[in-house]
## 1
Amino acid sequence: MAGNTIKIGLVGLGTVGMGVLRTLRKNAAVVRARCGTNVEVARVADRDAARLRACGLPPAKCSGSFQAILDDPSIEIVVEVIGGTGAAKELVTKALKAGKHVVTANKALLASEWQGILSLAHRKKVAVGYEASVMAGVPVIRSIEAGLAGNRIQSLFGILNGTTNFILTRMAQGLEFDQALQEARKRGLCEADASLDIDGYDAAQKLAILGTLSLGRRVPAASIYREGIGQIERFDIEEARSQFDYVLRPLAVLKRGAQVEARVHPTFIPTHHPLAAIENEFNALLINTDTAGPITLSGKGAGEKPAASGVISDIVEVARAIRKGDGAGTLVPAAPAAGNARIAPIEEVQSKFYLRFSVVDRPKVLAFISGALGRHGVSIATCHQLGRSERGAVPLIMVTHLTREGAIRRALSGIDASHRIVKRKTVAVRIEE
Amino acid sequence: MAGNTIKIGLVGLGTVGMGVLRTLRKNAAVVRARCGTNVEVARVADRDAARLRACGLPPAKCSGSFQAILDDPSIEIVVEVIGGTGAAKELVTKALKAGKHVVTANKALLASEWQGILSLAHRKKVAVGYEASVMAGVPVIRSIEAGLAGNRIQSLFGILNGTTNFILTRMAQGLEFDQALQEARKRGLCEADASLDIDGYDAAQKLAILGTLSLGRRVPAASIYREGIGQIERFDIEEARSQFDYVLRPLAVLKRGAQVEARVHPTFIPTHHPLAAIENEFNALLINTDTAGPITLSGKGAGEKPAASGVISDIVEVARAIRKGDGAGTLVPAAPAAGNARIAPIEEVQSKFYLRFSVVDRPKVLAFISGALGRHGVSIATCHQLGRSERGAVPLIMVTHLTREGAIRRALSGIDASHRIVKRKTVAVRIEE
C-alpha cells in the first residue's frame, strides 16, 4: 500500500489547515476514489506547539519548522496554508526549488508574487494549485482555466468578499454600518484586520488573480482602483431600492478593452441582476464570455470547510496526475506572460452614478446643480427630490447616464464647494446594469 | 509547426459542429495560448454534402463518412457532435478502439452507454470528454469531477432543460401553455421532437450523467421518475405565487440516502431559493456538498456557441495533456463502478405538496377532504379556499407537510373518486424548499 500512497506535507494548522486535515480524514474514501490512490498527510508543521499537540497526528510527524517537510524526499506535495507573504513565500519558493508540487490558499502571496511563483514552477516542472485562493471551495480558477478555455473572457463581476456583502445585506435590512460590522465580527466573518475586508484589499487581491488568469497578462493588485464600504449610509441603500429598484453589492469589476478596467467598490445593481440574489456572506462570480455567454458561480467564499474543499480539490488533481505516472507534468503551468495589462486610470472609466446632494431647500437649487453637471458633460437620467429636511438640508437624488469618472469628479468638486447651497459632501455611488 | 499541431476530426456539421468550427477559427489565439500548441481541424465528416460544401474547409478534408477520420493516424482527437445513439455510438466505439481520444456533446449516448464507453476508454487508455453533454458551456462536469473532488455530494437540484424553464417563465408572465410552447418553438428552443423537452426525457438523461458522476454508481436514465410540464395550468402558477410566494421551475432532483431519490418534475420553490432567479432558457445546477457547502452554477445550457464552448474546453484539456507529453494519460477515466445506485420508488419519496381540489361549494366539503387526507397520514400545513366558482366548482388549495408520495396518491385517488364532491382531477405539484 505504501508505494501506492501519495504523501503530503501540510504547513499551517490554523482554521484552513485543520479543515484540510479533518476533511481528508472524513472523506478519505471519496478522495481515494477520485485519485485512484491514498493521500496521506505524512507531516505537519506549525510554529505553535499547542496546535501541533491538538492536531491528532503522532509527534514524530509534527514539527515546529517546515524544514522537516522540505527535507523529506517522500513528500511530493507541500500544502501552504500559513497565509501572508513572509514565511509562506519562503516555504513556497523552497518547496518549488526542491521539486515539490505546491498547493496554496494564499491570495496575498499569489497577488504579489504571481510572476515569481509561476515562473519557478514552470522551470522546475512542478504544479502549483491555488483554487482556494479565490472564493474558497467554489471552483472559479478551474472554470476560467479549463472550463472556459475556448472563450475570450470579456468581463468579470464578482462579489469576492463575504464580510462586506454580509454588512451591506444587513444594512439593507435596517442595521447601521457599525452594528452590521459588529455582527460580522461576532460571526467570525472578519479578518484580524477588518480594514482588509472593508477597504477592499481582500477583494482586490482576488480580482488580481482572476484578472491575470482571464486576460493572460498580469493585473497587479496595486493597479486596481479600490473604494471601501465604510462611507456607505443606510439612507442611500433604502432610497436606491425604493426609488430605482437597485441593491448595493461590494463588486469587483474587470472589463477587457483597449485599456482594462479593474476596480473594487460598492455598486448599485438592479434587483434582477444575477448578483442581486447573492446575500449575506455568500460570494459569486459572473463571467461574461464571447462563446459560452454569461456564466455565474456562487457559494461560500470563506470558512474552514469551504477553504478545505478548495485546497483538497488541488491535492486530488495533483495526486491523480502523479498516480497516472507522468509526475503531474500536465499540470505544470505555462511560463506566465511577462507584461502587465494596461489598466485604465479611474478618471477615464465610464459608469452611471447615483448621486445624493444635500442642498438647501430653495428655488433655483435644481437649476444650479443640473447646470453644473451639464457644464462637465454629465447627463441626468432621473431626478428625485425628497421633502424631508435634515439639519436644514434636503436630499436631492439623481441617477446619471453613462459618464466619465473624471467629469463627475470635477463637477462634484465644484458643486460641493458651493457651501451656501450644498450642506455636506455629495454621495456618489457607481451603478452597473 | 506541423509537429507542434494537434489534429482533430470533427464528425457532424449541425449547429454544434459548425459552432465548434467557427469558434476554433475565431478564438485560435486563445486556444493556442491555453493548449501551448495549435489545434487544427484536419478532417470533417457529415452525410450531408451541402453542409460539407458550406463548412469552409477544402474538399480534401471533407468526407461523407467518418471512416476517413478513423483511418487517419495523424488525428488524435475525434469530436462526435452527430447526436443520438445510432451512428454516434458506432463512431465513438470505433474511435476509442482505434486509440483516439473522444470529445462528445451527446447526453443520450452517455446516459445509455455510460458503462460501455467509459470502460472502453479506460481499457484503451484514452480520454473521453463530455463537458457539453450537460448544460453546454457551463462547466458542471469539471466542477463535480475536479473542483469538488474532496466533497461528498449530498444532493443536486438542477434546471437542466432550457425549453421547459422558458415555458414556465412565460406562463408566470401570463401566457397559456400552448402560447408559451409556440414561442419557444419560434425561438428555436425546442428539440425536433418537443416531447423530449416537455416530458422530461432530456433533463432525465442529463441527471443520469450528473448523478452517476456524483454518486460513483450508475443512475440509469430509465430509473429516474419523470413528470412533464404539459399538465401545468397558469392558474396554479399564479395562486402559488400570490398565496405562498412560490415559483414553478422544471427541477431535476437527486438526493443521496439509503435509497437515492432521482426525479424530474415541475416543482414549486420559494422565491428566495437560489434557483428561483433562473429564468427563461437559462440553466442552473445547485450542488449541495458536505464540505464546500451549497454551490450554484448557471448559464446558457444550449445553443450553438454555448455548446461549442463546452466541446472546446474538452478539446483544449486533451490537447494540452497530449502536448505535455504523456499522451493525455492523466485524463484516462477510472474504470466505471459496476453497480447501479439503489433508486427509491417514487411512492417512497417524501415531499411537500401543493394540492388544488375542485370541489362543490357546500358545507362539510373541507371536513371531507381533510378527513380523507388525514386517514392516509397526510398532514396539512395551510389551506386556502377561493370564493370564485368555475362551472359549479370552487378551488380549494392546500399545502401539505412532508409526506410520503404513496400516501398522497392513495388519498387523492379516494378523494377524486367522490364525484359528488370533487369535480375534476386534483392538481398536485411537489414543493422543494
## 2
Amino acid sequence: MNDVIKLLNAHRSVRAFKKIPVSQATVETIVQCGQAAATSSFIQAYSVIQVAQGPKRERLAALANEQTFINDAPVFLVVCADMQRHKMACEKHNVDMLSGYAEQFMTATIDASLLAQNMAVAAESIGLGICYIGAVRNEIDAVSELLELPDLVTPLFGLCIGYPNTKPDLKPRLPVSAVLKQEVYADPDAQQLLDDYDEQTSIYYQTRSGGQKVQSWSEQIAAKLKQESRPHIMNFLKKKGFLLK
Amino acid sequence: MNDVIKLLNAHRSVRAFKKIPVSQATVETIVQCGQAAATSSFIQAYSVIQVAQGPKRERLAALANEQTFINDAPVFLVVCADMQRHKMACEKHNVDMLSGYAEQFMTATIDASLLAQNMAVAAESIGLGICYIGAVRNEIDAVSELLELPDLVTPLFGLCIGYPNTKPDLKPRLPVSAVLKQEVYADPDAQQLLDDYDEQTSIYYQTRSGGQKVQSWSEQIAAKLKQESRPHIMNFLKKKGFLLK
C-alpha cells in the first residue's frame, strides 16, 4: 500500500478545526489541484466561491441546517456547477447556446465533483481536514441569492477546510464485492452482502455509541427514504436553466 | 509541493496502453479507495461494473463513439449512479421508498463522481493511466441494456485503466482566478480572464498541431454548444426512475 492509497483511506469528515489560519496561497494550490482532474471535452463547467468568516458565512451556516462548525472552518468554499462561463464563450462568437439539457447538468455536476474530490485529496495531503456540506441544498434558493449566482450556475455542496481538531472513527463502507460487479448488474449474492453489511454497521454503531444507536445501514437508508428528498431542488434547477429538456 | 500534489498535477487522459495485465487485486484496491471518499449521509449511491476484454467490451467501445482504444485497456469499468440498492434496503424494512427526486439524482451523481476521482488518483499512484469515457452516454439505452441495469441505475461514464503507452501534453486549464471567486459569483475581470485564456489555448494548440488546430477555448465551446447535447438523456433518466420530480 503506497502513501497515496494510505492517504485516501485515512479520509474522514472533519467537523472541528484548530484556530490555525490557512494561507490564500494554499487555497489556490488546492483549487488548482482540483482543476488538474479530468474534464468532459475540456468544458471545465465549475466555479468555486470562497466565503470568508463573518456575517455571510454565518448566514450560510444557518441555512445549511444550522451546522455551526461551518463558521469555525478557516476556509469555506461553495462548489458550483457552472455553464454561465460557456454562455459568455458563445456570446463572444455570436453563437446561440443550446442549453437546458439533462446531459449538460450531468456533465457539469460530474466535472465539479471530480474537481472537488481532487481538492479534498490535495487538502488532506498537506494535513488539512475537510467536510462536504450537502446541506447548502436545504435552502438552495437563499444560498444562490446570497452568493449572487446567475442563471446556469447552481451550488452543489460546500467544503469546509482547516486543520483538524478531531479524528473521527472510520465508518465501514459497503464491501467491495457489493459495489464492484462483473459484466452485468445482477448479482445472486446481493441480498446476502446487504445482510452481512447490516450486521457490520449495527455492531459498529453499537460499539461507538455505547448501545444508543444500533441502526443497520439499511435501516438508516429506509428511515431517510420514506421521507421526501429536498423536493424544491427540481424547481430551483429549472429556474436556473438546467433540466429543461 | 508534496508528492500527492505532484501526482494530481501529472494527470493526463491516457488512450494507449501497454499489453501488461492489471491484477484483480489491484482493481479491488482501486475500487476500495474510491469507496473511501466522502458519501452524502452515508448513502454510497454507486456501483461499478467491470467489463472484460471480449465481445461485450467491443460492443461498448462501438457504442461509445467507436473509440477502439477502449478495447485495449486491460481494465474497463462503467461507473453508475445507483439507488437500486436503496430500494432493496427499503423493501427489507417494508418501507415505500420515495424516489424520483432531482435531489437524489444529484446526490448519486456526486457520490459516484467522488468515488471515481479517488479511483483515478489511486490508479495513477501505482503508475497506471486512466481515461474517463463520457461517450458511454452516446447510446445510453443500449449500454444500459448490455449491462442489464435495472431501474434507478444509470451509467455515468466509463473508466479505462492500464499502464500508459503514451504521455500526452498537459492542456492549460482556466486560470485559478477565473474559477475561484470571492464572496459572490460576479467578477469584473471575467471577460479579460476569458480573453487571456483564449490566447493561451490558441497558442497551445498552434504549437502542438503545427498550426492545424488553432481554436481558442471559447471557440471550441461555442462550436460544441451550438449543437444539441445528447438530447436523449432526459428521457432515459426518467425511464430509469430519475428526475421525475
